[in-house]
Amino acid sequence: MVKIIFGLAVLFTSFFMFVNSPPVLAAAPDGSGPWADSVVSTNQGLTLNGQPVSSFYPLRSNPSSALGVAENDTTEGNFYSLGFGGSMVLQFDNPISNGVVLVEATNPEYPFERVQVELSDDNLIWHYAGTVVQDGYVAMPRTVSCARYVRLTDISHPANFADPDADGYDVDGVMATDGTSCGGSGVTPSPTLTGTIVPTPTDVPDDSSASSNDGGNRGAPICPDLKPGTPTLIAVSYKNSTTAVLDWTKVPGANNYMISYGLQTGNYIYGVAQTGDVTHYEVGNLAPNVKYYFIVYALNNCQPSDPTSELSSDPGPITGYGIGGAEPTVLADTGDSVTTITDVSVGTLAAISLGYLLKKRFI
Ligand SMILES: [Ca+2]
Ligand SMILES: [Ca+2]
Ligand SMILES: [Ca+2]
User: Fold this and answer.
1) Three-state SS for 307?
2) Does the keyword Calcium apply (predicted)?
3) Which CATH number fits domain 26-187+346-353: 2.60.40.10, 2.40.50.140, 1.10.150.530, 2.60.120.260?
């Protein structure tokens, strides 16, 4: 009898160990490569029911799982769960000069988890870059031109989750989209360029049904969508001295758009990674009396279009239209100006260029 009990105990223990300890080796830091290289600090939050994440998911509590090339899968041990309100600081050996892409372990059937992204060049002064739901891109804040640190803070809404073990945003990997040109010929932010880009549309309650357009391609490592057509950037005008208003044409098959802009023609150092499925967007927090140059891309689930032609805009009077050669008559409201997220799982150019499938099944 004792042997039987012992045998059962061994069997149970073996099974328990098996299901909790799959043979996973997370990616290693890639040094001068674009991915994160070391963990500076962590402050893991709690699960929805107030328990340490490690008590339920020890394999999701190893911060080094966020280093190196994202595995881009749903394997336990390949990502770090921040916990609600939790944070982590990652350091890069390579410089960050053009924003970062986040890869999350994602389950489309699970309520969306959200993270705030900040960048720093010294781990002391932090610059808000934006927020990301699932996979996504944040542009370089205008207040910093070259960073080495990324701070991620979970800002998921607990009220959107029913699972008591919900554990916040899951960091698989973080990649600099360009780490080769720091200190180069890029525009040096002027002291007058205070404030930050606000690329994140109005926060909306998480809705897992928003990801129902997977089209049965879950798990497929390819993009099922054709490259979207190129929109036309119709007009850039000024709503006030610090807010530019962009209007462009809708592209069939696209479900999101991206705005890039900068202070010199052809040099787009700022951006709004995801406007949502709209044709009208207001870019705020611009420096007053500064001329900006804008382009727009259409996005589908995994590919960007070619960019539009560039339009520039001099800051004009509050009621001024027609800047940049645009005709006031084309600026009628489209009704799409509410910038809620309609497909938050759309990824970014960089993620797309890596061939990542942006929707995965996991929490
Ligand atoms: Ca690296
Ligand atoms: Ca999670
Ligand atoms: Ca990983």
Assistant:
1) coil
2) no
3) 2.60.120.260
Distance in Å, CA 126 to ligand 1 centroid:
20
pLDDT mean over 155-178: 90
Question: Nearest ligand to the C-alpha of residue 86?
Answer: 2
Question: Across-strand partners of 131?
Answer: 116
Ligand nearest to the CA of 160: 2
Q: d(Cα 29, Cα 108) in Å, to the nearest integer?
A: 28
Domain positions in the chain: 26-187+346-353, 233-331
- C-alpha of residue 93 to centroid of ligand 2, in Å: 27
Q: Mind listing the pLDDT tens digit for each residue in 286-327? A: 887 788 899 999 988 767 888 899 998 776 543 323 222 222
The 10s digit of each residue's pLDDT in 110-165 is 788 889 999 999 999 999 998 888 888 888 888 888 999 999 999 988 888 888 99
Pair of tokens at residue 275 = 């406007």
C-alpha of residue 356 to centroid of ligand 1, in Å: 18
Q: 121 alpha carbon to ligand 2 midpoint, in Å?
A: 28
Q: Contact 284/259 with Cβ under 8 angstroms?
A: no
Q: Which residue has the tokens 């039987």?
A: 4
For ligand 3, the distance from its centroid to the CA atom of residue 199, given in whole angstroms, is 25
